[in-house]
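Thread: Newbie trying to understand structure tokens

Hi all, I'm a second-year student working on a class project, and my supervisor (Dr. K.) asked me to get a predicted structure for one chain before our next meeting. I've only ever worked with sequences, so writing a 3D structure as a token string is new to me. If someone could post the tokens and maybe explain what I'm looking at, I'd be very grateful. Here's the chain:
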Amino acid sequence: MLKPCLMLLCLGASSLSLASEPVDLDMVSRIRQEAFHNSQVMATFSHLTENIGARLTNSPQMAEANAWTRSKFNEWGLSNVHDEAFDGFGRGWEFSSASVEMLGERVQPLHALPKAWTPGTDGPVEGELVHVEIKKLADLDKYRGKLGGKILLLGEAREYKRGTEPDSHRHDATSLEGLQEFTVPKDSASDRAKRVKEYSERVELAKATNEFFIAEGALASISISSWDNGIIRVAGGGSRKAGEPVGIPELAMIAEHFNPLVRALERKQTVRLRVNVDARFTGDTDEPGYNTLAEIPGRGRKAAEIVMLGAHMDSWHTGTGAADNAAGVAVMMEAMRILKAVGARPERTIRVALWSGEEQGLIGSQDYVARHFAAYPEPTDPAQKALPGSLREPTGALQKKRDYDRFSVYFNMDNGSGRFRGIYAQENLAAIPIFKAWLEPFHDVGATTVATRNTGSTDHIAFDRVGLPGFQFIQDRLDYFTNVHHTHLDTWDHVEPEDLKQAAAIVASFAYHAAMREERMPRKRVIEPR
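---
Reply by user tm_fold:
Sure, no problem. This is what the structure looks like when written as tokens:
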């Protein structure tokens, strides 16, 4: 037990530590009142999910979402509301319906949905089902001359594994304590080389397979969903680029319907299916994608400096993109609305960005960062140019743009719709005491933790890669990784309204305090390429 004088010294040091980072409790109180008692976050979320629906990049629905969010920003009195293009994303695509039926003595509907950027069937097609396994280019030769007029069952059956954990999860003291552990990373050179090799082989095989199936005259193909329990988890196939082979209509089927088809073919039974997919490309040429942006202008000598918050507005196409990521968009929009509603007058400009192309590799945010802040030189090696940005080797010193030194911080939301429990510091140790002070007024709503560790796979990485402070919040995962992530179940009903209210209040407070602090947020050292 500490002696009283020593305890007072410790408490005093703790208080001094927190006191060194000012927190405007009056503003926090106003933000909380507006967020908790006058929230519009669910109205925004509901319109995105149940009026507009899925928002595949460059689809008509994504264009509608860009226009609608611009209108809301204007309605709320934000400034510099606009869409900003990023080049060469590809064609738009949408689908209206899809059905698969087993024909013969036992007629049965089978549950499947199409992969994005694959063609429709142009009306119902019927054919015999054949089992096809293609794992490498040489496997194509086994099927030459055998697939004409057939429907293809791609891949193997998968053994069902019953879940041992609850579908939905909220953090508790133990799991939050576990986030405090930091794992020293291993040398990544060999891992990068492996990922580059696997990516290049996968792209080559997909292109060759698309061309082969078209040439052979196959009618459609069906793959197994990557999740069990009747969940259709599906992303893209074909190609979004004009002029590239898009293959044949391709669908993902629930495991519980896919597996019996495999077993029937293994028993040498003849299986006939009818497939009907109403899907289409919405243009003949590659088109730019669009991010939507708006601001609350700063005032005074720091007005040219920038605090950013954002979330990706694009989604996959089979659900309504609710947890991934209308939730994040609604929270970031609500944070901006709250700041306007409480009359915040930030010293730095607060800018919100609703990204597109995130699901295809952070394309919208990476392009924005490269245009406005910094980028590594474009590679000249064709093999490097063909890789996504995350796999490229930097080819020279970081090239900084005018706004690089005006930038302070970016906050992101894209880990589902769960309640905020804190924030990942992204190995930026100097940011930790700042975040701890900003979180303290939200301990009573469950946000208590600052974790040293990195988290990845979403738009804050576009900033972090060029040495700019970019952060993602710690969230309860709910059933994000058991039911909804990239599935047809990613809909309104899997979201908790109170969690979105809490998140919006925290984002608004963090953005305000970042815009008001004397110095910009501290930065990590940029590690230049060897």
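A couple of things are worth pointing out once you decode it. Residues 189-216 form the longest helix (28 residues). Residues 1-19 have pLDDT under 50 and may be disordered. Feel free to ask follow-ups in this thread.
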